[in-house]
Amino acid sequence: MAGMNYTKMIRLGKSGLQVTRIGFGGIPIQRLSEEQAIRVLQRALDGGLNWIDTANGYGNSEQRIGMAIRKYDRSDVHLFTKGMGRDRQSLQEQIDLSFRRLQSDYIDLYQFHNVTDPGTWQSMQDNGAFDLVREYRDKGLIRHIGASAHTREAAAAVIEHAEIEVLQYPFNFIVEEEGMELVEACRSRDVGFIAMKAFGGGALQDAAACIRFLLSVDGIAADPGFERTEEVEEVLALWEEGAAPTAENRRTIERLRRELGKRFCRRCGYCSPCPHDVEIITLMTIETLIQRFPADRLSEQWIAGAGASVENCIECGECEEKCPYDLPIMEEIRRGAAALQRALRSAG
Length: 348
Description:
TIM Barrel
């Protein structure tokens, strides 16, 4: 293919893992019944995908994955999961729980979940959290170590660590410019790169444009989330095809860049923390949470509390001054809070 050196499989950096360019993102299956979740997962595996990414914090996702993979040879399925623990004790509890839920003797890739900033990353190395994961690796229970991050500063700090083999970071055609900087940084260090938020956390609906764009970037993998077997079928076909974006796809990409450019939150974190305790990032992205999480989870404190925090906003404008993308944050957080209230009323 002109302009593309396409392969269906890649080596995931210095981990050496041979993975399909597309994997299975484990957030959306929380919304399904157990039977539906297993069916969607198994269709993806039967279609040739060979890795699943989830996290301790994704509700019932790990349990459902553990049930879905029972019928497969364990060596044919790479399991990736994550833990939010910032200290040794909390991370120990999360890792042990992940093993029980996944019903597996080992985890192929364990990731420090959402490292927020370089200072937090350093504290995790100083307080024994990283040592704990290293001990699991040395025993063969965890095969490889990675991390996910949502800010460039955190990601840059993470990949400097010699033992980090894989970075997971939001990457799609909306954030191509800043994302490519990290893709190149990972390449220079032989760190594997997983593109999360392939569909912008639900903001981008054109699967062909999204997947073909990601497949056109050499050497990276992506883990879109799926709720229906029809979605799996569509992405499997795009993966098998391995085509570059068409002229129509490029027009869609340019249109969405124009439309979302002034209101698309990249979760970079520059706006936070708010001096008045408004949960800005959660409010800015609340509609994607509504799309992706089960209705009964919307009343959880971290979501409902974020919705209520909008009342703390005094419209000082500090967040908008800090935003590198000039987003209308004060307008968007109120729109997000209203959307959450509508979803909660609909859920009863």
